[in-house]
Amino acid sequence: MSDFLALVCPQCGGALPQQAAWRRVACTYCHVLVTRNPSLVERSHFQAALRRQAAEHARLNPEFVLEGAPCRLIAPLGSGETASIWQAERLTAYPERITLKIAHDASGAAQLDAEAQHLQNLLARDGPGSAYYSRRIPQLVAQGQYQGRRVLAWRVPPGYWGSMAAVLRNQPAGIRSEHAVWIWRRVLDILGYLHNNGLAHGALSADHWLVQPRDHGVMLIGWRHLHSAEPTDAAHDLQQSAWTIRQLLNPSDTEPPALRADLPAPLADLLASASDYAWCRSTTAPALDALLKDRARQAFGPPRFIPFSPHSPTHF
């Protein structure tokens, strides 16, 4: 037999209908509005609180105009030697989330201008694979000024969470070795396109690798270092990519980061080879990717999808 619950008015003690358990009702005796649901909020109260929050946010983050469109900062994402990075919003007819890079000084402004020019040149290419790879580099939105400092803005790609450097702050012991495989393969795929077009990225540190957890995607940023590539520059990109993978597996201050003791031998051997500059000069990004695919199969068996969480490691 279930327990019987009697609802009474807290003001007059009169009986209340059962609906008071989940919504607001008026007491038939004293006419006070009452409910038993502690999470119920009146629409007018919610809307008033929302207006107060919006007004406070607007006070702390005033609007500014970027190439004719009003914008507003939302939240800081990080800060580097030359610029700070913010999440922002373009307040147009169809509001759009953007990532904003704000230069610290004149030197940083020059580097932002160089990065914008590199991206524009890269996106303007119309050769084989250009349409595919244009979706894997930042899409420029605008350039301009914010409070007297140079600004570069690009669209927020859907599903991208943050950088691999941010992932390591959540996972200080390093990521799973299975995840290192697909992350490295995504980077090598982009490098293959760049090197085939005579270009080199030149700055493949973990803070320049944005990760898309759900679909296992990686996007490179930090394009101010992009330059015409000699074979030596392509080899340097490959070596940098291997060093960064070693850091993701075993965060440390050594150069290169030490190989983790529990790393499967096929993957450890390949990382050791690819960390050597001379070895990298004898190969290419597609060839290294083919080796990685083979070594991953030796280490882990047939490919399988393992969900990736940037917040905490997955163990099962």
TrEMBL record:
InterPro entries per record: Kinase-like_dom_sf, Prot_kinase_dom
Domain Protein kinase: 71-316
GO MF annotation: an example: protein serine/threonine kinase activity
SUPFAM superfamilies assigned to the protein according to its UniProt record, in alphabetical order: Protein kinase-like (PK-like)
Keywords: Kinase, Serine/threonine-protein kinase, Transferase
Keyword Kinase set for record: yes
Name of the protein: Serine/threonine protein kinase
Taxonomic source organism: Chitinilyticum piscinae
